[in-house]
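Researcher: Quick one. two chains, 298 residues in total.
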Amino acid sequence: MGLSLLLYLLLLIAGGIIGYHDLASEKLQSKLGKIQTCCLLFLLFIMGIRIGLDENVVSSFFTIGFKAIILGLFSVLFSVLFVKLVKNFIIGKKEGKTSDN
Amino acid sequence: MTIKILISVALGIGVGYFVLPSWVFSYTDIIIDIGLCALLFFVGIDIGKQKDVFVKIKNMGFKILLVPLMIITGSIVGSILGGLIFKMPMNESGAVGAGLGWYSLSPMLLSSYSNELSALAFLSNVVREIMAVISVPIIAKKIGYIESIAPCGATGMDTLLPVVSNSTDPQTTIICFISGFICTIAVPILVPIIIKL
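Model:
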């Protein structure tokens, strides 16, 4: 895992350098969004195949669905709550331009 | 986009379940790795194109970094608490929460750990993004602009950015981008660390 993690970060940085210095051709840049969408949908398709091949996952899909909603909901609730806790510290001392409403 | 995503996954599950023999499974690992590398490279180009992002971080001060820090902490704590309902091990529920809504990456980071957790990470983070799309305008109106960034997590720099910019002001939009950027970097680091705890 460590090695592929390093590879991911290196590719992200390599892409960043290319983007920053405008080394990518305009043709490529204009298609960036489409390429990303295609990559993403392909990856999700392959991931779906992995899930479909694993009968344990398929059979427990309904229990997972409820769990997924609860974990997602709690993540959202607590991240909002935690940001609210530090909000005054972040923008209180600034000019307070970011209004509450 | 959400519909395309659901169709892709559903199609994959259908093909995997009904069509493909089980030996294909061992080859999917390398395909995912190659695809993910390509995707991250292109995401990198996208980030690099936003040249002023580092200048903006500097101008706004380090306090801005508290926003993603609190989003990350809140997501992990919330997910662990949610997991307690199902008596899930804390490292598993924490790792799902550390996905921060990046539903394409977090399940892949967990696929070598267990397929069931990987599926849960996927579904839970898809749920998170859908909740974000719905809740950002409401939170911006009822609670506050800064708080409305929180549900976005890592998607604050791409999918959810137009939603935030639509419901808040330019300053909040910039904070949202920076926060999404930091969350995006944090996901591939935190998920593997937390699952090993």
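The mean pLDDT of chain B is 86.
Researcher: Thanks, that's what I needed.
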